[in-house]
Amino acid sequence: MFSNFDENYIYTEEIMATKENDQVDYVSSACAEFLRKQQDISNCINIKAFANLHNYTGLLSSSEAFIKQHFSEVAKAEDFLFSSSGDLVKLISSNDCCSI
Questions:
Q1: pLDDT of residue 18
Q2: BACK domain location, by residue (predicted)?
């Protein structure tokens, strides 16, 4: 199991992924937390899409909250242009989304 985690370095160790252990869940959670901490205006749309694709509900929620909180800056980012119409409708129709 990983014993050290530092966002500036990658520690590698062989992981035996079995149904009986939770190492995969631990690594998955650590990766999601790393992405959450790295989230910014330029990558939040892609992190949200990644979280949605891989069903990381906690990361998805934090990405959506980040986008809503920084909506005026995110709307100016290049990745915003590639958002689906469904995502945009959901985002702008929410009560807690900031206006441009």
A1: 64
A2: 44-97
Q: How many helices (H) and strands (E) does the chain have?
A: 5, 0
- Which residues contact residue 60 at a Cβ distance below 8 angstroms, ignoring those fewer than 6 apart? 48, 51, 52
Q: Sign (positive/negative) of CA torsion 72, 64, 62, 25?
A: negative
CB 69 within 8 A of CB 98: yes
Place of tokens 């689906």: 84
Residues in the chain: 100
Here the tokens at position 19 are: 């149904």
Full-model pTM: 0.71
Three-state helix/strand/coil letters over the chain? CCCCCCCCCCCCCCCCCCCCCCHHHHHHHHHHHHHHHHCCCCCHHHHHHHHHHCCCHHHHHHHHHHHHHCHHHHCCCHHHHHCCHHHHHHHHCCCCCCCC
pLDDT band at 27 (very low <50, low <70, confident <90, very high): confident
